[in-house]
Amino acid sequence: MNLVSYDNNKLLKKIQELDCLNKNIVDPRNVDFKYSNGSYYLIEEVYGNKIDNNKLYETIKVSILNGETSVNLNDKSCYENPKYTLKSDKTIETKAILDKYVSTKITYLFERENEVLGGNRIKEWLSVDDDLDVKIDENAVKDYVLELSSKYNTVGMTRNFKTSTGKAVEVKGGYYGWKINSIGETKLLIENIKLGAVLEKEPVYTQKALYRDKDDIGNTYVEVNITNQHLWFYKNGKLITQGDIVTGDSSKGYSTKLGTYALNYKQKEATLRGPNYEAKVTYWMPFNGNIGIHDASWRYSFGGEIYKGNGTHGCVNSPSYLAKTIFENIEEGTPIICYEE
């Protein structure tokens, strides 16, 4: 028979007023990890003095019922303790993982330039959660890859180009150039960090240009002068052919888009279709979607100002001899520069 009774609400109130629950509380903290000079060292855990309220209540309740006048909170395990300490197996495992990740060294190759990624940058992307699991900030990795892209991508950049007529023009836009595959490279970089890889590599590219120099066009290209309605084709610096052309009809909103592009492919005998037209051509060389260079057997004259009222839907119409010569000598990926003077 229990001879001791008490008012539970008053007991709870008294417990909540205890100094150990209200003054100078220091929370327990797991062992921590600090990066320095290429590896991590351990920072000792903190036990603190934070009370587990439920344990305290149960301990005091039992003590009252047993007629006890004092309670040792340490003996009764009333304090909250860190989950992981210097001696925990998980601590050693986590440190090994962190050290492996920051041992990674990736040297990105960009022809004459390199970008070296090492532990000093990678450590900014690492964190350890309450269960001592190591997390890699994928968004931070992606941001790094985007930094590389911003510095080394050349697609759509403004290029200074010296024309065959001797003028210097700025050519903006187009799809030719280097373009890093940010999604693919981010994924691969995370995998390499997890492996602690040390290697030299190119980034994953969505597309490549012919050259990595400041002039990524080189000396093999097709030059389309919209203003003069004339085309030149150079291969290895040598003029292969040239001639008058007809480009997109500016009066109808079909102007050939300016910019630097690349030959997508070439096809012998093709049928081109669009709104209200169908045309069979012998030499088809697309470079901007369904816009390309091709012969136009239905035309009897080229050049001049034909394009201003009787132009194309955006394609570059060429005399058969011109289209044939280009077709026989051009290769996929060859730059095609469309500009106005």
UniProtKB/TrEMBL annotation:
Gene3D superfamilies: 3.10.20.800, L,D-transpeptidase catalytic domain-like. Residues 220-339 form the L,D-TPase catalytic domain. The active site is at 294 (proton donor/acceptor), 315 (nucleophile). GO terms for molecular function: peptidoglycan L,D-transpeptidase activity; transferase activity. GO terms for biological process: cell wall organization; peptidoglycan-protein cross-linking; regulation of cell shape. Keywords: Cell shape, Cell wall biogenesis/degradation, Peptidoglycan synthesis, Transferase. GO terms for cellular component: extracellular region. The keyword GTP-binding does not apply. Pathway: Cell wall biogenesis; peptidoglycan biosynthesis. This is Ykud domain-containing protein.
